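On clarity, I found the account of how folds are encoded harder to follow than it need be. What matters is that the chain and its backbone geometry are given together, residue for residue. I therefore recommend that a typical entry be quoted early in the introduction. An entry of this sort, consisting of the sequence and the corresponding backbone structure tokens, reads as follows:
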Amino acid sequence: MNSFRICWFTLVMAVGVSGAEPAIHQAQGVFIGEPTATSVLLQTRLTAIAGPKLDAENDVPGSAGVGRFEYGTSPKFTDTKTTEWLLATAPNDFIIRAQIANLQPFTTYYFRSIVGKTEATAQPGQVGQFRTLPAPDSTDQVKFCMGSCMNYHSFMSGKANGGGPVTATAEDKELGYRVFKTMHLKNPDFFIGTGDIVYYDHPGNMPATTLPELHKKWHEQFRFPRLMEFFARTPAYWSKDDHDFRFNDSDLSGQRLPLAKTGIDLFRQQMPIFAADDTKTPTYRTHRINKHLQIWLVEGRDFRSPIKMKDGPEKSIWGKEQRDWLQKTLLASDAKYKILISPTPMVGPDRASKKDNHTNLNGYRHEAEAFFDWCKANKQNNLLIFCGDRHWQYHSIHPCGIEEFGCGALNDENAISGVKPGTKNSTDPMGLLKQPYLYDKPTGGFIFVQQATDEKMPTLKISHYDDQGKILNQCKK
């Protein structure tokens, strides 16, 4: 591992023929998306500057060129395979993405990008590594991290977004959110980013509305060295929420910029969820992690009814097609642990003033309660919900028995105090929910999950951590 890290940090990032053409850089690193037992997506963006500092326009401009990926099981890149050449152009924000198939389960692969202005001048660029998932019937141990609500403006400006602590140092603002250094040391098999990866509408007096402004939000977020190191060796699954879709509590309606179609298309462009030419496959999906664990990632923005609609049987976040798919695939699964990854909470409690999610009294609560009734009727007793969106960490239990774990915000400056069951101005004023855990004070952090088999018995350990690696809560299933 140490030799790989040394290689990564000493890599020459500029390629090209000196004096003949501009250098090609990869100032946003490389990404590994949607890992399975036999496949991944590899992605990078060709840039005109090396980073991590932004240019005079506070951006990371792209650079037209070509690229491909070389991969294999040797860190020395012997006996490798290569993808086809891919074009980095302005319409795709100079991003190249390749789908890699026919891999071996639970195997470590090493890869590097080969990039340049032309195929003739392309040279090796940034390197990375990943491990594929275990075979679906395997009992191999896995571990993963989950985080949400990564607010760049509050981090860089030193202005708390809701009363949380301001802790980012000058060094942090150069290297990036310290939570990624902490998660990196956990060496997770994958990461789940469950929405609000960027904030189009922050700062509030300068929201991003045009395509260049929207692109800039992604460029500035992922040029930090800590993020680049983490994502160069950690595959990820991504979901979007309101802030990386359009704006706070946004749905599909209205002409306020950015338009809904722009938000949908841009997220698919920036995040490696599907092959680059796939614009049709719905973003809800499920992955069998191993014999005992399966995850479901639901889409919370693309199909939702208008937020102003009166709650009832016709109002939905998921839409009928997604809801039918979810119920069908849950029934078909024999996994001991079923985890529903939701960008927004379903149990809560939340603040009574909100109307945007499944817990809210004037929001989409009917759909949530109907789903919980369905789970009870169909004996889905082993379903757990992991959610983002709320900026505090918690563990709550619905009266039907379904448990929800909130991961909170990734950075301190975006963390806020939580809501307790029985609070007057909450979605649970009667105190019907149980809450085994609510953090004492706001802090950035993440959820860390370890699925193992101890003495032939599967176990699931769920831990809340702060951004410096302190365990705040632990639960074993």
Summary: The radius of gyration is 22 Å. Confidence is low (pLDDT under 50) at residues 1-19.
